[in-house]
Amino acid sequence: MHIKKIITFICISLVLIGGNHNVVAASPVQTLQTNLAITTEKHPSTQRITPTDQTLYGQNNTFQYNYSLTKDQQPSKANVLHLKWNHSELLIAPSSLTISIDNQPVKTVAISTKTKDSQLTVPLQKSHLTKGNHTVDVQFYGVIKEGVCVNQNTTGNWFNIKPSSYLRVENEMTPLTLAEFPQPFVNTAEQPTVIVIPNNPSAEEVKAGLLLKNNLQSTASAVNNVLIQQENSIHQWTGNYIFVGIYDSWGNTVKKLVDQSKLKAKKDTLHVQRIQLANGKTKTEGMFVLADTESTLADKLPVLSHPDLRSQLSGNSMEITNTPKTATRSNNVSFKQMGAQDLYLSGHAPKSPHYYYPVPAFEEGSQLTLKLKFKASSLAQVKEELTTNAELIIWVNDVPHPITLNNLKETNQTWIEKELKIDSSVVKNNSFLDMYMEVTGLKEDVACIQTDERKWVFISADSQWTLPKTKEQLNNQVFTNWSSAFYNKGGVMVIPNNVDHQLLQELSIITASIPNTLSLQHIDIVKEQEVTKKILKENSLLFVGGTNKHESLHKVQDQLIIPYRDGQLDLASQGFVTETSKQVAWIQPSPWNEGQALIVLDNIDRTGNVTDKALLTTISAPEESFSIAVKNTNGKVFTNNQTIQDNNKQEVTQAPTNKPSSWLYIGGFVLLIISLITLLLWKRKKRE
């Protein structure tokens, strides 16, 4: 296994650094002058230490946060750890809060009823600001009742860390190299990162910009601060900028910067170069992602979007001439791929975070297989030492799957391995596999006996899910899992010919609703003018806009489940009030190929946005069966779920059966009566 990994790594490396590939590592980052104002400089990088409230229960408990620095930094007033909290009103002395960084205590404060809602700022020292990984531990010690050998582990003993807590490190304006990418473009808490594409972008340029935006959003400190816009939206520089497109596509603003850089288009070459934009002494970070053709841009963009390739970037400027090969999609998904590292759980830290992985709809009756590798302390395996049954619980989409820890069989192997079979119905129509781990029974509520620290479970990040087969037959009758329509064979998103700011923002919302690992890599984007008969016949289709934006859709409007009358959608025919409706989404078998799906997003009055987050949320993770979803002017989303249910009942009622007709029973009864009468007449005649 290790040899295979080494060979794979070498092969990928050769793709990036071999052949005609050119790395310019020694040259400094270019500083390009601009006449536009720059409103950002040397902003601190602010990272929330928790996205949600983190509540610590019991007498002793710890919350841990990890951060990483790409360069050594110097102490300053801006470099701080800021903690906000609230806690139980029952806490009394000597309750305390201790903050440690890299296992060294830096601050301890007393907590009591006077500090119920409070905050604390800890300056970061030089040792906390060195390049590399660092760990922050927030340790809570709570006392709610005086006395010796008093049980303090009750639900009233708690301490809560608020999501407004943060770690802030000032960015030095020392230019970063490509090796640090995606830094600083994911540090968006204080300033945005803007993806810029040309004013009249091709479909491939739109897709490249959206793919890069979605990729950065997955790790950005402030997701909504990763933006995409066209060149004509630039009036000043606010934040950090990435310019994505073809050399010949740019207007005056970006063309001046490209000319200053001396970059020239080369055949089948993608240029990736770090730059700084400067107006006088004011600077901000930027990057060029430029190609000679649309196909070059599409083929070679994975060097920035694929983690295995991105981690091998180096220098300040690179020329990508070979198309990198990435791993094909696999049904095996490790915990690492879900974002999990090795997990340590104990009585004091019994739960892991949630981890997510996008999945399609699975075949009914199929199973997911979890191969779990873990270690457990000896006390967790000895029944006599535990007053309660100890379990490791794997929660999958809120359904528990326990593993008993008492009396685990000893093995000669370092790791304990367990295999769980989980019915795919637990995922239902969700677009994500949602997993977290929890241990129970390891915390002893026995006063004066501190044995909890010796009971733990350590879960390997090499634990692995095996996903079942996806549905072979595409469900194009109703909305199920949003990604399923495009998972197996991909699909095509058809967009209007004119790409303006409004459409670009809509496309950004639409693509963000598609799970990242499936995402745009499996979906082509084409403009209406580029649509061919082959595209229509061989693909599942997503039309952004209705018949007024798409001639190909207009030609088959009589085959759409929602008719257009005089160019307007007739929602009344489907049971919706047209006058209060705003946006609609529907799915049906494709008019060009009944085995494929057609999805249409449209606006009722044919102006404004064709969709929004609320409508996309409804169709991406449906909780009921429907083929049409309508958002009205009050912001509510309605579906035709009742119509679907009624149709299903009617089909069952009208379904043919093998039971004999009632006329057969009547005929048989009449025949029986005639036979009896004949028999009676025969007997009477015989007597006579």
List key phrases describing it:
disordered N terminus; 8-stranded mixed beta sheet; 19% helix; single chain; Jelly Rolls; 37 strands; Chitobiase, domain 2; 7-stranded mixed beta sheet; alpha+beta; 32% strand; 5 domains; 688 residues
Short description:
The protein is α+β, with helices and mostly antiparallel strands and 688 residues long. It has 13 helices and 37 strands. The strands form seven sheets. Strands 1, 2, 13, 14, 15, 16, 17 and 18 form an eight-stranded mixed sheet that branches. A seven-stranded mixed sheet has the order 30-29-31-35-34-36-37. Strands 3, 4, 6, 9, 11 and 12 form a six-stranded antiparallel sheet that branches.
Provide structural commentary.
The chain has 688 residues and is of the alpha+beta class. It has 5 domains: 2-43 and 182-320, Chitobiase, domain 2; 44-170, Jelly Rolls (Sandwich); 332-466, Galactose-binding domain-like (Jelly Rolls, Sandwich); 484-652, Chitobiase, domain 2 (2-Layer Sandwich), CATH 3.30.379; 661-688. Helices cover 19% and strands 32% of the residues. It is built from 13 helices and 37 strands. Strands 1, 2, 13, 14, 15, 16, 17 and 18 form an 8-stranded mixed beta sheet that branches. Helix 2 (203-217) packs parallel to helix 4 (294-300). It is globular and about 120 Å long. The relative contact order is 0.09. Mean pLDDT is 81; it is low at 1-21 and 651-663.
Q: Whole-number average pLDDT?
A: 81
Strand content: 25-35%
According to DSSP, the number of beta strands is 37
What would CATH call the class of the largest domain? Alpha Beta
Return the domain count.
5
Calculate the terminal CA-CA distance, rounded to whole Å. Answer: 103 Å
Q: What characterizes the major β-sheet?
A: 8 strands, mixed
- Work out the radius of gyration: 32 Å
Query: Under the CATH scheme, which architecture of the largest domain would be assigned?
Result: 2-Layer Sandwich
SS summary, helix count: 13
Morphology: globular
Residues in helices, as a percent range: 10-25%
Poorly predicted regions are 1-21, 651-663
CATH topology of the largest domain: Chitobiase, domain 2
Output the structural class: alpha+beta
